[in-house]
Amino acid sequence: SGANTITTAVPFLSITPDSRAGGMGDAGVGTTPDVSSQHWNPAKYAFMESDMGIGLSYSPWLRALVDDINLAYLSGYKKLDNVQAISASLRYFALGDIVFTSDMGTFMGQQSPNEFAVDLGYTRLLSDVFAGAVGIRYIRSDLTGGQLVNGVETHAGSSFAADVAFYYYNEFRANGKDNIFSAGINIQNIGSKISYTDGEVKDFIPTTLKLGASYTTELDEYNSFSFSVEANKLLVPT
Fold first, then answer.
1. Contacts of residue 12, Cβ cutoff 8 Å, sequence gap at least 6
2. FRET label pair with 218: which of 45, 91, 107, 161, CA 20 to 30 Å apart?
3. What's the confidence (pLDDT) of residue 158?
4. Radius of gyration of the chain from Cα atoms?
C-alpha cells in the first residue's frame, strides 16, 4: 500500500522559534508561561508575572548545509488589567540567495525568497486557573520573486489564519515544595488555502492541533525540575 503523505504550504509556521521550546523537543503548549508564548499558546500570557515583556529570537536554519537561511522571531505582550492581555509577534524566515534556471539550465535570475507572519492576540482569564485566547495571523510567502514556473506567472502567496487556545495553570504546595501543574490546547492556523499563481492550484496551510501538559516541582530556592508531554496532529487531508 502507498503512503499517505501530508503536505502543506508555508511550513516555516511550524518551526520552533525559541531556544527554550527547542531544547525541550519542541514542547511549549502546556509548559509554564514565557514571552514566546504567542507561538505556542497565547492563553499563557494571562499568568505572566510581569505586566509586559518583549522577546527576540534568532535561529540560523540548516547551518550545516547552507549559511544564509535564518529565522527571526519578535514577540511581546501587555497586560491590560488583572484578567486581560494583548500580544503580538513577527516571524521572518529568509531562505537566502537562490539562482533560478530553466529546464535546459539557462540562468533565469537570482532572488532572495522570504516568508513572514504577523500575529495579534487577545487573552482573558476565565477563572483563577484557566484562560482562553484567540489570535489572528497574516501570512505572506514570496518564494519565486515573480518567476515563470512551467510557463505560468507566479506571485507571492498570502493567507489569513486564526488560533484558538486554552490554558490551565495551578500552583500548589506538596511535601513542603512549591509545585505547578499546567496544561494547554491550541488549534493553530485555522485559515484559508494559499496560492502562488492565479490558477486553481491552492495549498493547505499547516492547521495543527497541539495538546500538552507539564508538571514542575521545586528543588530548592533557585532550581526546579519539569516534566512535559506534548502531542501534535496536522488537521489537513492526506
1. 71, 91, 93, 115, 117
2. 45
3. 95
4. 20
What's the CA gap between 204 and 193, in Å, rounded? 5
Q: Which residue type occupies 53?
A: G
> Alpha-carbon distance 17 to 56, whole Å?
9
What are 59-66's contacts with CB under 8 Å, separation 24+?
59/15, 59/17, 59/22, 61/15, 61/93, 66/96
pLDDT digits (tens, 9 = 90+) for 134-164: 999 999 999 887 777 667 788 999 999 999 9
Of 189, 180, 94, the C-alpha closest to 135 is 189
pTM listed for this prediction: 0.90
- Supply 192's cell numbers: 484559508
Residues 21, 28 contacting (CB under 8 angstroms): yes
Is the Cβ–Cβ distance between 32 and 227 less than 8 Å?
A: no
Pairing of strands 177-191, 114-125: unpaired
CA 24, CA 86: separation in Å to the nearest integer?
26
Distance of CA 157 to the CA centre of its chain: 18
The per-residue pLDDT for range 74-130, each reduced to its tens digit, is 999 999 999 999 999 999 999 988 887 777 777 777 888 999 999 999 999 999 999
